[in-house]
Design a protein that fits this description.
Elements lengths: L1 E3 L6 H12 L8 E4 L8 H6 L3 E4 L6 H11 L4 E4 L5 H10 L4 E6 L10 H17 L2 E4 L2 H7 L10 E3 L14 H9 L7 E5 L8 H15 L2 E5 L5 H12 L6 E5 L4 H7 L2 E4 L8 H9 L3 E4 L2 H7 L5 E4 L5 H13 L4 H12 L5 H12 L5
Parallel strand pairs: 1-2, 1-4, 2-3, 4-5, 5-6, 6-7, 8-9, 8-11, 9-10, 11-12, 12-13
Length: 368
């Protein structure tokens, strides 16, 4: 039983669904709890793969409903992805007699400030995780050090399992022409792609400002793929209008064909304030698309293993970002070069097979 807020297209949710596609359903049935109580964009696919999503809102009756659900579904593993709230989840799982109780850290910041109340909450939840977790996982070293402890290597429960991507999803030659035709973009215009929901952490406005400098030099178009309908999207649209970029910036909304967009793009741009192990960067590299990203711990972890990633600080000016972006856009690429990139990715620690092996090794401890 995986525990999330809602099964929308976020990084952790997409990575967990990728595991589900590759795990043998004869040995492991993967189900999900949505603590928001809401339906998610990934629910239908989860059910098509033989799983189930249980809306289970956090209210006064949650503890009783959660424990009853674990008993009714005969759950042997609870795998919680909700940062420090995991402490409560694993305490209830222990009460229900679940033998394998996993805390999984996926970010290098929680964005919740540092008030006295928040510090007390963090202390209590970490104490609960320490007491009830049988295993403590993280998507990268930075996420483990932030979420759990800089001394995590001394804790035998701790293990870094890198996010995995199925590189075969990006065997999509000719997508540049297809995407340009769909969006009525000239065939010779470079495509810059930003993937991510419209939330403050993703820093879309800064990405748009950088793109305005790129467009001046290259005549590029910007594709924004991610769930909107938020104040952050409104800010982004207003900034596009103020820069006179309406004809060059395309708000695509939430898409289920991100692989096609990446295979069409000439550059993947990431200007996030913080990330754990950014899936957008991993997928871009698997697609053979160059990446220009914020210099973050998770990005550096990927960069140490894979080529095709350049980084800058958010303190660097837009002009510096644009100059480097233009060099990356100008580098020649072909279907052949993308095949080479996919092959290199499949041999890397981020291949989906490595991630599946790591997760199954943890889960199977709870099997009789």
């Amino acid at each position: 039983m995986h525990v999330f807020g809602v099964m929308d297209r976020g990084g952790a949710e997409v990575r967990t669904l990728a595991l589900m596609r590759h795990v043998d359903p004869a040995h492991y049935v993967m189900e999900y709890i949505a603590l928001s109580g809401n339906e998610g964009a990934l629910d239908d696919e989860i059910r098509s793969l033989g799983g189930e999503v249980h809306p289970c809102a956090l209210d006064a009756t949650f503890p009783v409903r959660f424990v009853r659900l674990l008993h009714a579904r005969r759950i042997g593993v609870v795998h919680s992805h909700v940062h420090l709230a995991t402490g409560m989840i694993l305490g209830l799982a222990a009460l229900a007699g679940v033998s394998v109780r996993i805390a999984h850290f996926r970010t290098t910041q929680d964005g919740r400030g540092d008030s006295p109340a928040r510090r007390l909450y963090r202390r209590i939840m970490r104490m609960s995780i320490d007491r009830f977790a049988t295993d403590i996982l993280a998507c990268g070293v930075g996420a483990m050090e932030y979420g759990w402890s800089p001394d995590w290597r001394a804790d035998p429960r701790c293990r870094v399992i890198l996010n995995g991507v199925d590189a075969t999803r990006f065997d999509l030659p000719g997508q540049g022409a297809v995407v340009r035709q769909e969006l009525s973009i000239p065939h010779d215009s470079p495509l810059v792609l930003i993937i991510g929901r419209f939330a403050p952490v993703k820093n879309h406005v800064r990405g748009i400002e950088i793109f305005s400098e790129i467009a001046l030099r290259t005549g590029a178009h910007l594709l924004l793929a991610g769930k909107g309908g938020t104040a952050e999207e409104d800010l982004a649209r207003r900034r596009v209008a103020s820069l006179g970029l309406e004809a060059r910036v395309h708000f695509l909304g939430e898409r289920d064909d991100v692989a096609s967009l990446l295979c069409a793009a000439d550059l993947a741009l990431l200007t996030s304030h913080h990330e754990g192990m950014p899936g957008a960067v991993l997928e871009a590299v698997a697609a053979g698309t160059p990446v220009l990203a914020t210099d973050l711990p998770g990005v550096r972890e990927i960069q140490r293993c894979l080529d095709g990633i350049s980084t800058l600080s958010l303190a660097d000016p837009d002009v510096a970002w644009a100059e480097l972006a233009c060099k990356l856009i100008g580098a020649p690429r072909s279907d052949s070069s993308r095949r080479v990139a996919r092959s290199s990715f499949r041999a890397s620690p981020f291949a989906i097979e490595r991630s599946v092996e790591g997760h199954v090794d943890v889960w199977k401890q709870g099997r009789g």
